[in-house]
């Protein structure tokens, strides 16, 4: 599964860094390193995919995603931290789509499995796709919402 987001106008925001002097700066920096925000917790959670909680949630999510159409709009991102990293903002003009892609090798379409010609070209099952799954998912989402542009995508489940 891949999440898609599209937008009307691309916005870039800069970040201002302020310098503080002396011991006050050091103490605050140490305190900041200890404290983790909500997005950092989410990032750590998605990093540890073998944990019991993650595996349970992944199992529920994959079942839920299977009941939905292959390309559908979501009300909110499944991974808010990752969505923000790839450019999503919770405001008008940003839409989130989820796309399901079939994994694995491609199969040659031949009538009754009969291939004519030399033995080299008689393979049916072990054909590898030239494009990656992410690229295919982004194209399908873009085709579904032709009036918008695809901003970026990320992995959700498999």
Distance between the termini: 6 Å
Poorly predicted regions are: 3-21
How much helix is in the residues?
25-40%
The helix/strand series, from N terminus to C terminus, equals EHHHEHEHE
How confident overall, as mean pLDDT? 83
The best one-word shape is elongated
Spatial extent as radius of gyration: 22 Å
The count of strands amounts to 4
Give the number of helices.
5
| Spatial sequence of strands, sheet with the most strands | 2-3-1-4
Strand content: 5-15%
Give the structural class.
alpha+beta
> What oligomeric state is this?
single chain
Sheet having the most strands: 4 strands, antiparallel
Give a written overview of the molecule.
The protein has 158 residues and is α+β, with helices and mostly antiparallel strands. 36% of the residues lie in helices and 14% in strands. It is built from 5 helices and 4 strands. A 4-stranded antiparallel beta sheet has the order 2-3-1-4, with helices on one face. The longest helix has 16 residues, at 52-67. Mean pLDDT is 83; it is low at 3-21.
């Amino acid at each position: 599964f891949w999440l898609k987001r599209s937008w009307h106008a691309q916005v870039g925001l800069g970040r201002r860094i302020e310098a503080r002097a002396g011991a006050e700066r050091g103490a605050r920096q140490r305190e900041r390193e200890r404290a983790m925000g909500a997005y950092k917790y989410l990032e750590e959670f998605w990093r540890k995919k073998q944990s019991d909680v993650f595996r349970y949630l992944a199992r529920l999510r994959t079942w839920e995603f299977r009941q939905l159409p292959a390309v559908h709009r979501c009300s909110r991102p499944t991974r808010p931290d990752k969505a923000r990293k790839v450019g999503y903002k919770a405001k008008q003009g940003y839409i989130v789509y989820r796309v399901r892609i079939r994994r694995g090798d491609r199969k040659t379409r031949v009538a009754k499995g009969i291939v004519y010609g030399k033995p080299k070209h008689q393979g049916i099952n072990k054909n590898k796709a030239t494009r990656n799954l992410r690229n295919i998912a982004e194209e399908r989402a873009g085709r579904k919402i032709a009036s918008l542009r695809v901003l970026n995508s990320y992995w959700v489940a498999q």
